[in-house]
Design brief:
This protein is mainly alpha-helical. It is built from 10 helices and no strands. The radius of gyration is 19 Å and the shape is elongated.
Length: about 230
């Protein structure tokens, strides 16, 4: 009896380019099925969002929410987290991957926010990226979610969706980001990041995409999509 080979869709090469005429319908269909294009990180201030996004690098939103649910009632300002100290902070975030380095970055970020930005989260890329633990992706998330700027934060989900669907193909995160910004109509760009990440997280999954339940099946250029219709 022959062994069944599982398709490793996360490793498939980029699909052919999606036709320009299909880009708007692609997002309109996602909008029709995703009621709330928002982050799944829990936060109630710009600062809480910034810290949650720093903590979410190479970690799940669920694990971050579990940690911040305990942390934020105790410390949810730069001054309060700085007062905890690095070791104190670790006790709240030890369920999150890379918590040692993240604790160090968060403490340094809190120091910089107090000393350089009057304890206020910056609303521009240059200042955000000057903070410890804040790279381009994190800055894009904060600029988009906190300040309503039409940025595109490309994580593993969006990188996969862009390449697999043919919406925006590229070998690097930056290449995919630039192509998405170029291709997505301006009036759709603000929410596009969340539509793509939620679609990638729950439907266009890495190993077993749920093509049979995909609202953008017709627009998608993934050549093996018919093989996954039953999932």
């Amino acid at each position: 009896m022959s062994k069944t080979v599982k398709h490793k869709t996360a490793e498939t090469p980029p699909s052919r380019r999606m036709a320009n005429r299909n880009v708007r319908p692609f997002f309109e269909k996602l909008a029709a099925t995703i009621d709330e294009p928002v982050t799944e990180l829990n936060y109630s201030s710009d600062f809480e969002l910034l810290i949650a996004v720093i903590l979410s690098a190479q970690a799940t939103d669920v694990s971050v929410n579990i940690a911040t649910q305990q942390l934020y009632p105790v410390a949810n300002t730069p001054e309060a987290i700085l007062a905890l100290g690095e070791e104190g902070l670790k006790s709240y975030i030890k369920n999150i991957g890379l918590y040692n380095s993240k604790a160090k970055n968060v403490i340094k970020t809190c120091q910089d926010l107090i000393e350089k930005f009057d304890s206020t989260v910056p609303d521009n890329r240059k200042d955000l990226e000057s903070l410890a633990g804040v790279g381009r992706k994190t800055a894009n998330v904060v600029l988009n979610t906190a300040f309503g700027q039409p940025t595109m934060a490309v994580d593993t989900h969006i990188f996969r969706v862009g390449n697999r669907t043919g919406l925006a193909t590229g070998k690097t995160v930056l290449m995919v980001e630039k192509k998405l910004v170029e291709r997505i109509p301006e009036d759709l760009l603000l929410d596009a990041h969340h539509y793509l990440i939620l679609h990638g997280r729950y439907t266009c999954q890495a190993r077993t995409p749920k093509c049979g339940a995909c609202p953008v099946y017709e627009e998608c250029m993934f050549k093996d999509k018919a093989k996954f219709v039953e999932l």
